[in-house]
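REQUEST FORM: STRUCTURE PREDICTION
Request ID: SP-0412
Submitted by: Lab K.M.
Chain count: 1
Length (residues): 374
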Amino acid sequence: MEADSPASPGAPEPLAEGAGGEFYSLLRTIKGKLFTWNILKTIALGQMLSLCICGTAITSQYLAERYKVNTPMLQSFINYCLLFLIYTVMLAFRSGSDNLLVILKRKWWKYILLGLADVEANYMIVRAYQYTTLTSVQLLDCFGIPVLMALSWFILYARYRVIHFVAVAVCLLGVGTMVGADILAGREDNSGSDVLIGDILVLLGASLYAISNVCEEYIVKKLSRQEFLGMVGLFGTIISGIQLLIVEYKDIASIHWDWKIALLFVAFALCMFCLYSFMPLVIKVTSATSVNLGILTADLYSLFVGLFLFGYKFSGLYILSFTVIMVGFILYCSTPTRTAEPAESSVPPVTSIGIDNLGMKLEENLQETHSAVL
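STATUS: Completed
RESULT:
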């Protein structure tokens, strides 16, 4: 009895060790869920797209502020020409159902509408800065995310879980933090010449972006990335070229060309070309919604670069905003959506795991199989 008495003061230790073990087990579970290789790869790809958007924003602002060049349609036209020269020509040399002429015979009018939506979305967002405030553009541009989710629900039959709505709310909270930081830092100097027109342009542009992104997701997952880029390059070149001659011929004629301006145009075109080329790859392994959440950080990258190039004032809220957006993005990517069968299908109306974040789901299944084997 005496020999056992010294052990009594240490009786809680097994409980403490058990509680600590459960805590560490919970941490390992969270780490395995949120920081898998596929999620980290998705984050990296999303931020690469954000950097491309940052490059287009910085070069456009440099052209506008330093050289008084405001030609968004010309800049987009160069990008569409690059897509045409690479991907449309690639389709022209293909055989069978993937040939350019075969695609045009079957779906030419659909791709005209897609090209029109893509061209006008780019134009409306850029043109809105002339009428409304930076805050309005940043906030109202997020309108495209719920529109995109609604279109994905009805067109792609995506079914979301509660965590997806929470993740979107977290990302939008991060955008609100960024806008608040802009106001506190004094970046909201221009009140705009006609705020209502500018706000309408942003809402229309965001909606057209959502339509374009849903079509892109459908095409790259059901058909091919080359077909999407080739058709957008073809009709985007035609539509933007016509619009260029109508709305920007005076602005282009007034440009005093030199090697610096030409270099900025080339830099913009390369950033935009990389954005268009890589976005289908990211959408194919995730979804259009997750990509749009990931590129919300593009404005923050532009702000960080603007600290050195344009003398912006720094605010700690920018770091907080970036962190909040990334947390929301990781939450969204951590759980795959589900895909419902179409109502008219002969298959019974049951739901199954969709192709959104499919790579992450496959990795999760492999881990579960490995654990079962052990």
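NOTES: The CA atoms of residues 307 and 313 lie 6 Å apart.
Reviewed by: T.R.
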